[in-house]
Specification:
5 strands; about 210 residues; alpha/beta; single chain; Nucleotidyltransferase, domain 5; 5-stranded mixed β-sheet
Length: about 210
């Protein structure tokens, strides 16, 4: 926990950005009955019948200091998908960064081994050498600021039935562009000093 909080207190450095990564599944539902147009001021109403169209995964990465985020919709969230997402971050979004600190939770696919499953050893090592992986503690994924971004995404974009993969990808892309245009950043105020006071019960008791 303190390692993550220390990362958040670093001074801004364009050459060594701090970014946060997380993902979530989205159930896809297709309407069976054509919905009745709601009147002005009425909330959208849904019929109880629908068709399940499987699930999709949404990878999200954000730079909370700059107010920038990126999201990618994938059909699965395997180690291979995760590895390709890391490559995209390193090569396409931060190609000039000397070192990238990546905050993430301890999901089993969030491992350097995933890169070696997806790429030849030389390529996996090249990507890994650009990254400093910083893990939130177990049961402490709330320390990952990407969870805040996913929460906003869920409320503003995903809080309705979305029928298919293509529609989901388009909706997420529009949301990302709009939120980036607003340059909405996260004002994180929970520090190591706060943790030592508010979460004192989690620290070991020292006998003197």
């Amino acid at each position: 926990m303190e390692s993550v909080l220390e990362v958040y207190q670093r001074s801004y450095d364009q050459d060594c950005p701090v970014i946060c990564l997380d993902e979530q599944l989205k159930q896809l539902f297709q309407e069976i009955i054509e919905l009745i147009q709601q009147k002005p001021g009425q909330k959208q109403r849904y019929d109880y019948q629908y068709k399940r169209n499987g699930t999709a995964n949404i990878f999200t990465v954000c730079n909370p200091i700059e107010g920038w985020r990126m999201a990618k919709v994938t059909s699965r969230r395997t180690a291979i998908d995760y590895a390709h997402f890391l490559k995209e971050i390193v090569d396409d979004y931060f190609p000039d960064a000397t070192r990238i600190t990546l905050v993430q939770d301890q999901l089993n696919t969030h491992s350097p081994a995933s890169l070696y499953k997806a790429f030849p050893p030389q390529e996996a090592r090249r990507i890994l050498q650009r990254l400093d992986l910083c893990y939130t503690p177990k049961h402490g994924s709330w320390l990952n600021m990407a969870e805040i971004e996913l929460s906003v995404l869920s409320r503003q974009c995903l809080n309705r039935r979305i029928p298919d993969f293509s529609t989901l990808s388009q909706e997420v892309e529009v949301w990302v562009k709009q939120r980036n245009a607003e340059q909405t950043w996260i004002d994180w105020r929970f520090t190591t000093e706060d943790a030592r006071i508010k979460l004192q019960r989690l620290y070991p008791s020292i006998q003197t």
